[in-house]
Amino acid sequence: MRHWYAVLLAVGLLGACSQAPQGVKPQVAVGASVTVEKTAVPEFKRTYRWTMEKKVTDPAGGSLTLAPGQSYLVKYAVSLVGTPTDSDFKVQGTVTIKNTGGVDVTLQTPSDTLSTGESLALNCGVTFPYTLPAGQALSCTYSQNLPNGQSRTNTATVSWSGGGESGTASGQASFAFTTPSAVVDGSVTVSDPSATLVSAISGISPEGVISQTYFFERWVKFDACGEYQVDNTATFTTNTTQTQGSASASLNVSVPCVGGCTLTQGYWKTHSTYGPAPYDNTWAKIGEDTPFFLSGQSHYQVLWTSPKGSAYYILAHQYIAAKLNILNGASATPAVDAAMAWAETFFNSYKPSDSLDKATSNQAKGYAATLDSYNNGLIGPGHCSE
Known about the structure:
Elements lengths: L1 H17 L15 E5 L2 E18 L4 E3 L5 E29 L5 E3 L3 E4 L15 E3 L4 E10 L5 E11 L2 E11 L6 E3 L3 E4 L4 E9 L5 E12 L4 E13 L5 E12 L9 H6 L28 H5 L7 H17 L6 H14 L10 H18 L11
Parallel strand pairs: 2-11, 3-16
Antiparallel strand pairs: 1-4, 2-4, 4-8, 4-14, 5-7, 5-9, 6-9, 9-10, 12-15, 13-14, 15-16
Helix pairs in contact: 4-6, 5-6
């Protein structure tokens, strides 16, 4: 009895030892498994070719009529277009083959092809067939020139065997040529030595075409009568190859030698020694600060006083402008001469603060209208460009 008891006890202990502890899973050997990962980085060069145009925007007609000594602010627009050409297409990247299983695998020579049919040469640094240990990875690189910028899909594939199994693994990457890796002459500098740059605007289309417009200004002035041509040339220089180009615009300017032309009070207000426009030395024949008749003000002050319906100032503004026009060589008419003579008698008799009867007020405004027509070129020799 004691012998059988010992045997039974030994068998029970062995059974207990053969049971796995509760909650612990028995280990199972991992088989073969291979994955492929890849990258595809496109590269290309974009080269710009630039064209330039220049035109006069003010005066719109491209010609001027000026009085001697008159200054005119001419405005130009310089337009540039950069047209891109893409070249040197290439794709490069890596192919990473990973042994994610628990046994060594043997790799055959991997392939890498594009959706457009091209085959890419992989540089893996090893000789195939190649044994890839469990848990390890093999990295291959590639770089391939391409004939065009067509979008493509890149697929890498490798055959493998190990642990009694075999199969293929592949990885894909798509790419498109959207952003150039190198840009040649992608910007320009613009110069116009005889004009001043005022502003510029630019934009780029989805196709990469660059449009730029530069706005320039320059003052034109001739003291002697005659016919003139003003040529203005702008130049651009590209930033990479220093390629240059230019465009010119011409402006015809007439300064009448007979009869002259007239300017408005607005011109004379702004072209005195007080500015803001360039000085017209016709003012020196009167003097901006010379007293204006009985007004208690200078000519300049009267010209800048708002009429607010006052017949005195309405007439004074047109009289001063007409006087400067005549001193500047513009011929008058009998009606203008009569208006000027009446105005001088009026200003020698009245001050701005004096009350005027209706007849005198209407007469002053009537002669002011005659002088306004003269100053605006409706009568007389014609109007200068302003």
